[in-house]
Amino acid sequence: MVGKENMRTEDLNLCFEQLMMRGGSARSGGGGKVKMEAGVITDWKDIPMELLLQIISVVDDKTVIVASGVCRGWRDAICMGVTHLSFSWCTKNMNNLVLSLAPKFTKLQSLILRQDKAQLEDNAVETIANFCHDLQILDLSKSFKLSDCSLYALAHGCPNLSKLNISGCSAFSDVALEYLASHCRKLKVLNLCGCVETATDTALRAIGRYCNQLQSLNLGWCEYVSDDGVMSLAYGCPDLRTLDLCGCVRITDHSVIALATGCVHLRSLGLYYCQNITDRAMYSLTQVKNKPAMWASVKGRNDEDGLRTLNISQCTALTPSAVQAVCDTFPSLHTCSGRHSLIMSGCLSLTSVHCACAIQAHRTPNAFPHSAH
């Protein structure tokens, strides 16, 4: 038996490489024996499954897939023990790879299929939904070839999804997303950036109705989103903490007011290029923070409560007084160098807005007069 205690990552990697090489030779007629230099393991089938999974945990996903083909014992152990996989390294034939492996890796909880060039097709996602029922995290970003069939399959086969990234999947309809939301009610993180036809007010109403645990939502450049959809989110998803509305040009102050009132845990808000936003929206943020009743349920209230990131770049209707009020209300918002969390690019009228530490840093050099000579 190979001792597992105090074994370094380098040792595990070396051991794995040796086993892979010699295991392959065995299958080619080498007699099935693996003669380790230390003389401890004499047959690759003697490797403890716990050790195999420990080795697997420190190598890349491509090696994991190769290892699963060494022998039936390894395949069964790996497929049952591996819960996280990424195929983002695969630049060719990802669809066929998923079709082949999804029926084997049935215990997957996290699957990353991010692509630079669209490869995935509906049949691959349908296979995932048919076999990977424990899936919680799925990244399908930039899967331009997928249709509504994929979302319908996921709705039925993967009800435990908590994190879904379909950013850039431009072919999905809002009806399909509405259906998914009604079945995947454990969603906490959802990325719909660039899904113009998908992220409509109809879909957002469904998300607000069914996905009450949602904490993070990216609606970047979903130009059909309006106040109606955002207000549905604000009242239906009270635990929302991160919301990106950049490029949602139809929203107005009503959206921000609803978020300020309904989402007291909101920590990050992106309003880039939302040019209908005015001072009224900014003041609503400060007023809600200052109402003790709204924050009474937040345990351990301190400076970290409230907004930590706010992007109002290109919101040209805002005035310095309103933005400064927001900055003063939330100490975690910074304009100082290296800590920019209040982002105001393209707002030339807001150059006078500064956080407390930036003002202090500006004053410090002049705090002590030079000694007389």
Automatic annotation (TrEMBL):
- According to the entry, every stretch annotated as the F-box domain falls at 44-79
User: Which PANTHER family has this protein been placed in?
Assistant: F-BOX PROTEIN SKP2A (PTHR13318:SF258), PARTNER OF PAIRED, ISOFORM B-RELATED (PTHR13318)
- SUPFAM superfamilies, A to Z: F-box domain, RNI-like
- Domain F-box/LRR-repeat protein 15-like leucin rich repeat: residue ranges: 99-285
Please give the InterPro entries that the UniProt record associates with this protein: F-box-like_dom_sf (IPR036047), F-box_dom (IPR001810), FBXL15_LRR (IPR057207), Leu-rich_rpt_Cys-con_subtyp (IPR006553), LRR_dom_sf (IPR032675)
- Pfam families, sorted: DUF7885, F-box-like
What is the top-level taxon of the source organism? Answer: Eukaryota
Q: What is this protein called?
A: F-box protein SKP2A
